[in-house]
Amino acid sequence: MTSRPITLSGTPEGPGSDSGLLTKTKSKTQRPPLYKVMLLNDDYTPMEFVVHVLERFFGLSHAQAFDIMLTVHKKGLAVVGVFSFEVAETKVAQVMDFARRHQHPLQCTMEKE
Ligand code: TYC
């Protein structure tokens, strides 16, 4: 078995035409859209129930949950988290189902960021 060195003579443009410049193609990676999950105020859902929902479904500490509940109570609504479409959809469904089962009118919605 014999082998000989491979010699490259020039570029596709021909020998001696290599400018030495390298070009790079920018591959545009698309980030998935994010969705804000919001809690809406109402006059009937007990404050402790809202705090419990925020702890249970959004993993917030008691203090964080209490703060957000008060923001919703005072301002009418607040963003409680930002998630992928699938996770946001699941959170909304879990909160709405939990509130309905406890017969509270609490509303939870999502919106593209
Ligand atoms: N406004 C309610 C009350 O006074 C408390 C409440 C807070 C309800 C946040 C809903 O998303 C909510 N009992």
Automatic annotation (TrEMBL):
Ranges where the record places region Disordered: 1-28
Pfam family, one: ClpS
Gene3D superfamilies: 3.30.1390.10
Protein function: Involved in the modulation of the specificity of the ClpAP-mediated ATP-dependent protein degradation.
GO molecular function list: peptidase activity
UniProt entry keywords in alphabetical sequence: Hydrolase, Protease
Composition-biased stretches (Polar residues): 1-10
Name listed for the protein in its UniProt record: ATP-dependent Clp protease adapter protein ClpS
Family (UniProt): Belongs to the ClpS family.
Residues spanning the signal sequence: none
GO biological process, one term: proteolysis
Superkingdom to which the source organism belongs: Bacteria
InterPro entries, alphabetized: ClpS, ClpS_core, Ribosomal_bL12_C/ClpS-like
Coiled coil: none
NCBIfam families xref list: PRK00033.1-2 (NF000669), PRK00033.1-5 (NF000672)
Keyword Hydrolase: yes
Domain Adaptor protein ClpS core: 31-109
Subunit structure, as described in the record: Binds to the N-terminal domain of the chaperone ClpA.
